[in-house]
Amino acid sequence: MQPWPRRAADDADTASARWPGAGSGPRRPTAARCFTASAPNRVWLAAITYIATGEGWLYLAAVLDLATRKIVGWAMRDHMRTELSLAR
After folding, report:
1. Domain assignment of residue 76, yes or no
2. Which end is more exposed in the chain, N or C (fewer Cβ atoms within 10 Å of the end residue's Cβ)?
């Protein structure tokens, strides 16, 4: 069985269909962006990851203060639904 031949425009077509504005204008690479803050509590960065455990997956959401590089909040759940990111 052979795969379908790809067109050069396939990637661009898919990206603009999935993410509005993806094809509009130049994008700076992530490494060139400025990830700094002038003072604490000005810029926060959030991330969600998952960890394999003996009992299944553990989902961890964390919030990092960009100026101090310290975790200012976190939550763990056995699922990745909306309440994980909204946990207090």
Report:
1. yes
2. N
What's the DSSP call for residue 86?
H
Phi, psi of 56 (to 5 degrees): 130, -160
Can you tell me the distance from the alpha carbon of 88 to that of 84, in angstroms, rounded to the nearest whole number?
9
Tokens for 81, please give them.
Answer: 């639904």
* Structural domain count, the chain: 1
Query: Rounded to two decimals, what is the model's pTM?
Result: 0.59
**pLDDT tens per residue across all 88 residues of the chain:** 556 565 555 555 555 555 555 556 666 666 567 778 889 999 898 999 999 999 999 999 999 999 999 999 999 999 999 888 887 7
Does a structural domain hold residue 32?
yes
Asked if 77 contacts 84 with a C-beta cutoff of 8 angstroms, the reply is yes
